[in-house]
Amino acid sequence: MKIEQPVNTDLNEDLAQFEKLPPKIKELAILMNHAEKTTGPESIALRKNLPASPSTAEEAIVTRKSREIRLASRPDGKPTVENFALVEVTLAPLEVQQVLVKNRFMSVDPYMRGRMNAGKSYVPPFEVGRVLDGGAVGEVIESRAKEFKVGDVVISNCGWRESFIAAPKELHPVRREVQPLSVHLGALGMTGLTAWAGLNLINLKLSDVVFISGAAGAVGNVAGQLAKLQGCTVIGSAGSAEKVRFLLEGCGFDGAFNYKQGPVLDQLKQAAPNGIDVYFDNVGGESLEAALECLRPHGRIVACGSISGYNDEKPRPGPTNLFNMITKRLTMKGLIASDWLNRRVDFEQEVGRYYEAGKLKNHETVVKGIDHAVEAFLGLFEGTNVGKMIVDLR
Ligand SMILES: NC(=O)c1ccc[n+]([C@@H]2O[C@H](COP(=O)([O-])OP(=O)(O)OC[C@H]3O[C@@H](n4cnc5c(N)ncnc54)[C@H](OP(=O)(O)O)[C@@H]3O)[C@@H](O)[C@H]2O)c1
Predict the structure, then answer these.
(1) In this structure, are strands 172-174 and 153-156 parallel, antiparallel, or unpaired?
(2) Cβ contacts of residue 335 below 8 Å, gap of 6+?
(3) Where are the domains of the chain?
(4) What is the pLDDT of residues 80-120, one digit of tens each?
(5) Residue 52 burial by CB count (10 A; 0-12/13-18/19+): exposed, middle or buried?
(6) Within 10 Å of residue 262's Cβ, how many Cβ atoms?
(7) Contact assessment for residue 282 and residue 217, using Cβ atoms and an 8 Å cutoff
(8) What are 334-361's pLDDT values in tens digits?
(9) Does residue 281's CB lie within 6 angstroms of at least one atom of ligand 1?
(10) What are the phi and psi torsion angles at 196 (to 5°)?
(11) Among the ranges 11-20, 35-44, 116-125, 302-311, which has the highest mean pLDDT value?
């Protein structure tokens, strides 16, 4: 990854402004800057001396500098760090009806791989030389909009950057009491919504035997937990023995197997000898073929993702056994989570209740710092995450 020299940065002007500040405010700004850069108990100790949430422009002074990740070039096949650039920028003073947000956590997601390509999809492609975007949860540091005040916690699509300026309509408020704040990107965020929407899409029934691929990931583990809460029998596949254990012991699945350890069809038949009613497809390829084989008559498929093919340079041929759709009268429904945003309140109430009652767990893998965000993203294609992959920007 290229680390580019600061752009749009006028350090001397900033320093001159800083020098004009009253001594007490200068001291506070230095302290906050230090606390931001420090992790562990020292940081907590320093923060104890600070207001619980920044109430004036002091934190804004130290957050006017922000780092962001841009698309440096489009990948052929598997992306590498060379396709990204980390750039420092200086944010402008706020105008009326603008809000300054400091991101606390950001999301990296497999769908972003598709956005690195030039072609049009259901979301516009990332543009070369421009900052990437994606889900993030942050805190309002400064506000010139009546809709938000300093200290409010908001989710936005302005990830891949430490701080940003936005209009109120780009921000969605969430409750600070629901912790950790990263849950708003995981079980209670976009991936949780995807899991919930997928199960609603195919009208899940109590008696269903559900097979989920990519089950130890962000969408998969929540889909499995929700299906268990509805009384279904749930089987998952994932890419390591550790993940199989996680599904059985951490998520309460009834069965699980490592798809790398033998043909998926053989392992699925062993886990579900009487067949399956629902297949929640996160990976496509061999797993989809195996599911088509094992689905019972009138079975349903949630077509959620197809990560096994995202880095292919040429599209692979589809399943060889699609004829099962006819003979077994199967239904396959495509899912786009954003179509369900009008049901967000229902989702937040239902799944939020499960979470707050301790019935649904938010599992996540946390990578620290924006300079490791690309690594976290690339890790999705290597399976380095258990649960939601999160980048901690604090
Ligand atoms: N339709 C929608 O609106 C929507 C919304 C969100 C996500 N999705 C899709 O849902 C799927 C899961 O997304 P997520 O956010 O929950 O990601 P995730 O599962 O948390 O992370 C990706 C996981 O995919 C697995 N994987 C990587 N390469 C693979 C391969 N070649 N074959 C099989 N598995 C592979 C890895 O786990 P292993 O170690 O198990 O291989 C990895 O941990 C993706 O396909 C994504 O595009 C769709």
Answers:
(1) antiparallel
(2) 194, 197, 198, 201, 302, 303, 304
(3) 2-186+367-392, 190-338
(4) 999 999 999 999 999 999 999 999 999 999 999 999 999 88
(5) exposed
(6) 11
(7) yes
(8) 999 999 999 999 999 999 999 999 999 9
(9) no
(10) -65, -45
(11) 302-311
Say whether pLDDT at 38 is over 50. no
C-alpha 264: how far from its chain's center? 27
Nearest residue (CA) to ligand 1, atom 30: 308
Under a CB-based contact definition with an 8 Å cutoff, are residues 326 and 357 in contact? no
CA atoms within 13 A on the CB side of 204: 24
Burial class (CB in 10 A: 0-12, 13-18, 19+), 183: buried
Strands (E), the chain: 2-3, 65-71, 84-90, 99-107, 136-143, 153-156, 163-166, 172-174, 209-212, 233-238, 255-258, 276-281, 295-303, 331-334, 364-368, 388-392
Closest approach atom of ligand 1 to CA 388: 20
User: Which atom of ligand 1 lies at the shortest distance from residue 387's CA?
Assistant: 20
CATH of domain 2-186+367-392: 3.90.180.10
pLDDT grade, residue 315 (50/70/90)?
A: confident
Q: How far apart are the first and last CA of the chain?
A: 21
For the Cβ of 235 lying below 6 angstroms from any atom of ligand 1, the answer is no
Atom of ligand 1 at shortest distance to CA of 111? 47
Going by C-alpha positions, the residue among 251, 131, 261 that lies closest to residue 187 is 251
Rounded Cα distance between 55 and 52, Å, is 9
With the C-alpha atoms ordered 235, 238, 240, 246, is the resulting torsion angle positive or negative?
negative
> By alpha-carbon position, which residue is closest to atom 44 of ligand 1?
305
Report the pLDDT value the prediction gives residue 119, as an integer from 0 to 100.
86
pLDDT, residue 57, reads: 53
Å from CA of 359 to ligand 1 middle: 23
The answer to whether domain 190-338 has CATH 3.40.50.720 is: yes
Closest C-alpha among 91, 110, 101, 109 to residue 174: 101
